[in-house]
Automatic annotation (TrEMBL):
UniProt-recorded name of the protein: Indoleacetamide hydrolase
Species of provenance: Devosia riboflavina
A single GO molecular function term of this UniProt record: catalytic activity
Domain Amidase: 32-438
InterPro entries named in the record: Amidase, Amidase_CS, Amidase_dom, AS_sf
Domain of life: Bacteria
Functional description taken from the UniProt entry: Hydrolyzes indole-3-acetamide (IAM) into indole-3-acetic acid (IAA).
């Protein structure tokens, strides 16, 4: 029977199994969407992942998806699957608020390109997901919406700015979602919430219809429950198939692959939690046990790279927002205003120096990847911090992400352990346009461990 099975059983199946059931008649997209809407209604009052739930539109599109499958028109692996969209990406008929006071009623007149591709692939858009204001600092209770809450501990941060994407996936509301990443905004929430985040190669996914933060550093990518689901989602939004698909090496063994382990980026840093070092070391050891050849390498000095990347981000963000900051300051929350306005202080000479540091870093990573199939390093140096620390002012959370927004390499973020009930994550970095190799390594690790199977307590 198409509607058989409890919500608990159905919604915890991965996209591949959901797809099989949609196609053999054991499940309908309408039934799946109805179950998803019920779980959102039950759990999201605690999580606050959603800004808007497109109930009527989602039910109508699910009905359409069922009719198409019934007629033999199969649009691909996401056909009939619910997907959530970060609220910095346009979905026609819904507001794209960026969590900013001045954008409460900023209705999108057409879909962003990634949303168009999802619809073409048969996905059912179910709503808009939480973000830190304009992708800047957070969490901030004075935003247009209250901050999303980490399912592993409601008193700890989600990371940002794609906070709602991570929360919806970690909390079991969705299997996959679409976020954006300018300095780690897909990967940071993935580390802190224990999900998979995928920042693809620069230019591989269209940014048309997504709000701009920093043009040279902005990326759009999936946040999903598993590596395979992130890869499937990426292939749909990037238009990849066949020999170009990120999924093409799924299930292949990693024996003989060369992994460069960039331990120098975190192991001796005074900010790092010992538990993080232990977890990432253990993850790399497991990859070695699977047959990969691990060699310790050294990436360029991170602190100077972070300063350079921050200068580029702040300068580009300020240039984009300068007129609005000057003429409509009331349209911004205080923290976002201050963060965006900071770019005013970046001189042309400082920007040129920062871009040179970024170029040098890109070349260094490319050189290291000539001798390695992928590079593995830490994600964040700590587990999620307590929300209370952010009440009075913004707190810089130590991550190792932003350099790859400059270099443009594809990066997979995934969970590798827990400390006191909070997730720990690592990054797998690949050559430009070699998403498939990154996915292969991440999937092999995931299949040999149980971290992706862990679930947070019910709210």
């Amino acid at each position: 029977m198409a509607g058989a099975g409890s919500d608990e059983d159905i919604l915890d199946l991965d996209i591949a199994e959901l797809g099989r059931r949609l196609r053999d008649g054991r499940l309908s997209s309408l039934g799946l969407v109805e179950r998803t809407l019920r779980r959102i209604a039950e759990c999201d009052p605690a999580y606050l992942a959603f800004y808007a739930v497109a109930t009527d539109q989602a039910l109508a599109n699910a009905t359409k998806a069922d009719a198409e499958l019934g007629a033999g028109h199969d649009r691909g692996p996401l056909h009939g699957i619910p997907v959530g969209i970060k609220d910095m990406i346009d979905v026609a008929g819904l507001a794209t608020t960026a969590n900013a006071p001045g954008r409460r009623d900023a209705l999108a007149v057409e879909d962003a390109e990634v949303v168009k591709r999802l619809r073409e692939g048969g996905a059912v858009i179910i709503g808009k997901l939480a973000t830190y204001e304009w992708g800047t600092v957070g969490p901030d209770k004075r935003g247009l919406f209250p901050p999303a809450r980490n399912p592993w501990s409601l008193e700890h941060i989600t990371g940002g700015s794609s906070s709602g994407c991570a929360v919806a996936v970690a909390g079991g509301l969705l299997r996959t979602s679409i976020g954006s990443d300018t300095g780690g905004s897909v990967r940071g929430p993935a580390f802190y919430c224990g999900v998979v985040g995928f920042k693809p190669t620069t230019g591989s996914v269209s940014k048309h219809g997504a709000l701009t933060m920093s043009p040279s550093m902005d990326h759009i990518g999936p946040m999903s429950r598993t590596v395979a689901e992130a890869a499937v989602t990426f292939d749909v939004i990037a238009g990849r198939s066949g020999e170009e698909a990120a999924t093409r090496l799924l299930g292949r063994p990693v024996a003989g692959l060369k992994i460069g382990y960039a331990r120098n980026w975190f192991a001796c840093d005074h900010q790092v939690m010992p538990a993080v070092v232990v977890a990432v070391d253990a993850a790399v050891s497991l990859l070695s046990q699977l047959g990969a050849e691990v060699t310790e390498i050294e990436l360029p000095d991170y602190p100077s790279l972070e300063v350079a990347a921050a200068a580029i981000l702040h300068k580009e963000s300020f240039d984009f927002h300068a007129d609005a900051l000057r003429n409509h300051p009331e349209a911004y929350g205080r923290r976002a205003f201050l963060s965006l306005a900071a770019g005013f202080a970046v001189t042309d000479a400082e920007l040129a120096t920062a871009r040179q540091i970024g170029s040098d870093f890109t070349r260094a990573v490319n050189r290291l990847l000539t001798g390695s199939d992928v590079i593995v390093t830490v994600g964040a140096l700590t587990t999620a911090l307590e929300v209370a620390r952010f009440e009075k002012e913004a707190v810089w959370t130590p991550m190792r992400t932003i350099g790859f927004n400059i270099s443009g390499h594809p990066v997979l973020a995934m969970p590798v352990g827990f400390h006191e009930g909070l997730p720990i994550g690592m990054q797998i970095v690949g050559r430009h346009d070699d998403e498939a190799r990154v996915v292969q390594v991440g999937h092999a690790f995931e299949q040999a461990s149980d971290f992706s199977l862990q679930r947070p307590p019910k709210p």
